[in-house]
Every structure is written in C-alpha cells, then in structure tokens.
Amino acid sequence: MEVKFTSLSSKAISPAPLKALSSEAESLSFPSSEPTKQQQLLPLRIIPGDYGLPFFGAIKDRLEYFYSDGGRNEFFRSRQQKYNSTIFRANMPPGPFVASDPKVIVLLDGKSFPVLFDLTKVEKKDLFTGTYMPSTNLTGGYRILSYLDPSEPKHEKLKHLIFFLLKSRSNNIIPQFHSNYTDLFDSLDRELSKNGKASFSGNDQTAFTFLCRAFYGTDPKDTSLGSDGPSLVQKWVLFNLSPELSLGLPKFIEDPILHTFRLPSIFVKSDYKRLYDFFYGSAGFVLEEAERQGISRDEACHNILFATCFNTFGGVKIFFPALMKWIGGPGNKELHSRLAQEIRSAVKSNGGEVTIATMEEMPLMKSVVYETFRIDPPVPLQYAKAKQDMVIENHENSFQVKKGEMLFGFQPFATKDPKIFERAEEFVGDRFLGEEGEKLLKYVLWSNGPETESPSVRNKQCPGKDFVVLVSRLLVVEMFLRYDSFEVEATKSALGYDVNFISLAKATS
C-alpha cells in the first residue's frame, strides 16, 4: 500500500485535535477545589505528616526519596499507608542548600490533583522545577516562559510567540516526521539483523533533527552544530535538573555533588552558546515576530531554545521510549494485530494519506497513546503555591490549606488512582475507547492540565501539548504501517527508559 504523509493543510484535516497549531485556545474552566453542598459532608481532617527537625528533616527526607529501597514511589507509598491519606506533609528534594524551603503538602489522588491547575487559587511563579529554580545563568539571564505565572505581563507575549511558531510551521510536521523516522527504522532493521538486538537510543538524534527541520527548516548537521545537539542538550538539562535527579551513583558521591549544591553554570556555558547560536541563525522568522510583539531577539531566542530543547525534545526523549516500552511489552500481540488492522484500514480508506483527519479514524491508536500518558506521564512532578486559604479534598476527607503553602502533586499516583481507574496499575490499551472511556480523559494530566482542556495564554498548560500528542500518534502509525508486531526490553534510566528492540516483524499485508 502506497502511503503519503501530507502536511497539516490537507483539506481533510479536522482542526479539533491540534488547536494549538491553528489558533489559541479560549479561556478554560478547571475543576474547582471548593466542595459542593453535597461534598460538604466529607469530614474535615488535619493534614497528617510533619517536616521533622529544621534542616535535618529535609535531608532525611531527601535521602529516603532518592536512596531508600523502592525509590521515590516507595517514598510516597509508605507515607500514604502510614497516614492512611493521599494528602500529607513532607519535604521534597533538594532542600539544603539548594532550596530554602522544602516543605510541601503532597497530593497523590486524582480528585485533589487538579487544584494545581486552578489559577484562581494557586500561583505557578518560578515553580517549574519545584521548590528551587535553576540559575538564570543557564538561560541567558532570563526567567523563561515556563517559570512565569500567567499573571505576569510577559507570560502572554512569550506564549503567543510559541503559538506563532507552532502555527507557522505546522505544514512541515507530518512529512518531516515520516522522513526522519523512516531513516531511524531503517537503521533499527539493519542493527537488529546484524546483532539480534537494536537500541532505540537513535531516537535522540532523530527527534532533535526532526524538530529542527520541522520548526526551523534547518538540518543541524548542515551547520556548525553538527550532530552534537542531543548531547549538548542533555548536559545542559543535567545542570538545570541535577538537584532532583539520581544518576545511580553511590549516595555518598551523588548526594553532595548533585543535591547539596548547584552545579556551576560556567561548565556548560560554551555548550549552551553553541545551541543559542544555532537557534539564533535558524529562527529568524520567529525573532522578527518577537520584535513585532515587543520582545527582544535575544530573549526570544533563549525562550524558543528552551521550548524546543527542554520542553519538546526533552518530552519526546522521555515519552517515545515509554511508548515503545508499553506497546512493545510481552503479551501485546493481540493489541498489535488490532492496531495494525485499524491503522492500515484508515489510511487505505483515506487514499493512502496520513493526515490528522485520518488519525481521528483510529480510536484504538489514540487510546493507546493516552494510556501511555496516563500510566507513565513524562512530567511526573507538579508544584503550585496557594494564593489564599482554601479547602481541598481527596475521596475521603477535606483539608484546610493556608495561603502561601506549597502544594506538590506526584502525577504517577494521581493518574493511577484506583478509585478512578479500574486495573489502574495495568497498561490497558483500549481503556479510552467509547463514551465511557472518553469521560476518563479529564484525569489524564501530563500536560500541566487535563487532556480535555487546551493551552491558552491564560493558563500554564504546555503550549505544545497538541503537538506532542500528534507526534506520539505519528510514531504509533509509522510503527504499524511498517511492522505487524515488535517486542522490546526496557530498563529504567535517569530520564525514562533505555529501550532495545528484540524483534521487528515486517508488515505482511
């Protein structure tokens, strides 16, 4: 079957799945954290837990978070069981000496979690990475869009700029994705044939090249950046996130180096300058638009670099291996057969074209992508600060939160809330099929907002949310147009999974 991967301007395209690429979303309404009259019956409970001794309590919690048996999942699970509550007090890393105040109120259920998105009640200023903010020396001296609260005037201008970039280059996404990932799959086939195993690590270079070609019309290999982009980004991201990462080193080495002090930005300055120069030279049309909006070219360049490398490339680097892990796990052959049949049938019935409209006719494929976002969200940690005294609720109790207290949500628990999802710990590929399945999408929260809502200049939902959903769907479509089935082995890494393909069965029909 001949397949054509067309631009987003195809007349068959429905605008609904990709609102952020075509226009800004309208104002949003999030689930309220205030109890309704019926919910007033929930008993009021004092938030359990404590922060321990000043200074030492934060270090104790940090060591348990990173180095106890079971890792951070056990850190939260053990406290949930101890307090018999999905809401409790704890210290979040890094604590001393990186963050001055590690104290948070932890939210682990799907009912309380949405208060983190309700900007009438919470503030998101400088909370993108948590209880600390990386040095602005890592971002050209600017507080980047991700760290701005929507109440700050510059937030609207900068988010407008990201929407402009997405809309301006939307026609390039599908063809460029097909071109770049065809090359990756060709290399996987060769490696598997030669070695009996093929690493998905090439996704890093492929994703970076795809984003640069799709967004800016430039292949980094044709510039002085060469093929160094992914490694430079990874090093720079490490300097941003080191206080909350574990690299698997012995704790007496890792904790003092990564979690106790900030890594000096001077050691990544030249690497970041190479990235900056590439984007400044490639994104002239975006920088011109920035000037029209009253943003300097320099500030705009640092922001599009961050949006492309940290937000988008970082998300794809983490999420694509997760997608392959969950779909390619053992026991999914029947799911593969259903996906291949659905995807190929939809493409055939649309004249061999892969468009957004074509993918809207693939409900199982869409469900599989949503289920991966649910079970393995690429951004697991969410923070917000209470703007006012308020009441939040889980399924059993109500709790009083004071103005200025920090709220923290651990998303992998909230999106596996057994009171919301049946078989919550299992990957269920068809979970979101049908009317009842679609009702559950409001509990898929990976984008700093519900899946049923859209990014806007008035909220903190990821401006590239619909873009990430689109390319994730494209990856699944590409896989099952090319292969009948595949199987992988996956191991945890500092930023997601290391994935190896151990079988790739070529399409037979």
Task: Give a description of the structure.
- The protein has 509 residues and is an alpha+beta fold.
- 43% of the residues lie in helices and 12% in strands.
- The chain contains 17 helices and twelve strands.
- The chain has a five-stranded mixed β-sheet with strand order 2-3-10-7-4.
- The longest helix is centred in the middle third of the chain and has 31 residues, at 297-327.
- It is globular and about 65 Å long.
- The N and C termini lie close together (8 Å).
Q: What is the H-and-E element order?
A: EHHHEEEHHEHHHHHHHEHHEEEEHHHEE
Classify the secondary structure makeup into a structural class.
alpha+beta
Task: Give the strand line-up of the largest sheet.
Answer: 2-3-10-7-4
Number of helices, where a helix is a run of at least 4 consecutive DSSP H or I residues: 17
Instruction: Report the strand count.
Output: 12
Shape: globular
Helix content: 40-55%
Strand content: 5-15%
Low-confidence stretches: 9-39
* Cα-atom radius of gyration: 23 Å
Largest sheet: 5 strands, mixed
How confident overall, as mean pLDDT?
93
| Span between termini | 8 Å
Record the SSE blueprint.
Elements (H helix, E strand, L loop, with lengths): L3 E2 L13 H4 L33 H12 L3 H13 L3 E5 L11 E5 L14 E2 L29 H16 L4 H23 L2 E2 L3 H14 L12 H13 L9 H10 L8 H14 L1 H9 L4 H31 L5 H17 L3 E2 L1 H4 L3 H13 L5 E6 L3 E4 L4 E4 L4 E5 H4 L19 H6 L25 H18 E11 L2 E11 L3
Parallel strand pairs: 1-6, 3-10
Antiparallel strand pairs: 2-3, 4-7, 5-12, 7-10, 8-9, 11-12
